[in-house]
Amino acid sequence: MNPHTHPDLRDCLASQQARLNRALDATPAATGRNQYHPDLSPVDWHYAHCHFIEAVWLDERLPQRPPAIGRDWHDLYLPELSPKWRRGGRLPPRERLRAWGRERQSLHREWLEAPAIREHPLMVGDYLVGFLAQHHAMHLETLEQVRWFARLNGAEPGQAPAAPRPGAPATGDRAPGHPAWIPFPRATHTVGHDGIDAFDNERDPHPTTTGPFEIAARPVSNAEHVAFIEQDGYRRPEFWGPDGRDWLQRTGARGPLGWWRGADGRWWQTRPDGARPLADAAPAMGLSWFAARAHARWAGARLPHEHEWERAARDGRLQGTGQVWEWCANAFFPYPGFRAYPYEGFSMPWFDGEHRVLRGGSEWSDPILCRPSLRNFFTPEKRHVFAGVRLVRDRMA
């Protein structure tokens, strides 16, 4: 075996392919083409897209060949060429899709052993294998968001978005309880990652200075966000700012995505895996960046800068990471000396000042996406990205 390859990355790619197969088989054919939200493509499209991207890299870009003669699927499976609303109706039948996906998996395993592929610079250390595995893992997490909206769209009559309980008091400016705070003095530390699995936006490790600050040992809990709602937090403009107030007015949001109240006043949560009573101690999930910032202001705190979050995560004392993506205060930006890799479109289009960074991973994230340096990014109005919040406070030097 080539000494510069990593069998664990190939195993990881095989694992993601198997997960894609299971996800397709678990989705009824009658619903696999459905688009349940404007931001989310159908399940069957995600399945085909992942295998198509493998083929583009292994059959076109690495050997520098034009697409094969015949039906050109680029205009369906390349996101920049295929509007989301058109994808479901153009997909091939489920059985053809399943057979094609398994055929590509077998073929691509053979290609990965071909000398012309293995000698390509993108295959040093199996970089491309890890890139594809992580690409598939991100789409598999998106499939859980699709399932979430499928459930939300099929909710039982009478279920409603979360709202303050009639007559609930509007007094008090602090969440219940006293979360433990972890102090950090002002210090210079390293952020970023240079491993073979690093995306271009987390390369190269470089020094930065943060502090003094203190960060909550755990993410904001459901009970704490219920208190924010019941103390009229979604109606108090001082916590939201002009952009947040505009978002509230446009959406009518009165709580996180998937929260609702039963006839007895008890809080419930619809998740991708079904509806259940809201667990008080679990991290709040389904928050937009606007809601995360408003909760932080109500609690007398703020959102972390992503470098503060990474410093604390590397320190090893944070609890509850990997349960919800955690919104950070800052916009997604290029690190010093940023170089687009392996293509310009992976990160560069999103350095637009609009996308906000999230860190940590969620309950539905594969472990390969949960390293301290990984930078997720979405625009601030999104509530479907399994996001919550961890608070930070400034400290005296």
Notes on the structure:
The structure is a single chain. The chain folds into 2 domains: 7-153, Four Helix Bundle (Hemerythrin (Met), subunit A), CATH 1.20.120; 181-394, Alpha-Beta Complex (paralog of FGE (formylglycine-generating enzyme)), CATH 3.90.1580. The chain is built from 11 helices and 12 strands. The chain has helices spanning 7-25, 43-61, 74-77, 84-87, 94-111, 115-118, 127-153, 222-230, 241-251, 289-298, 306-315; strands at residues 181-184, 187-191, 206-210, 213-216, 259-261, 267-271, 274-277, 325-331, 356-359, 376-378, 387-388, 392-394. The strands form 4 sheets. The chain has a 4-stranded mixed beta sheet with strand order 10-9-8-11. The protein has a 3-stranded antiparallel beta sheet with strand order 1-4-12, covered by helices on one side. Strand 5 (259-261) and strand 6 form a beta hairpin. The longest helix has 27 residues, at 127-153.
Secondary structure blueprint with pairings:
Layout (H helix, E strand, L loop, with lengths): L6 H19 L17 H19 L12 H4 L6 H4 L6 H18 L3 H4 L8 H27 L27 E4 L2 E5 L14 E5 L2 E4 L5 H9 L10 H11 L7 E3 L5 E5 L2 E4 L11 H10 L7 H10 L9 E7 L24 E4 L16 E3 L8 E2 L3 E3 L3
Parallel strand pairs: 8-11
Antiparallel strand pairs: 1-4, 2-3, 4-12, 5-6, 6-7, 8-9, 9-10
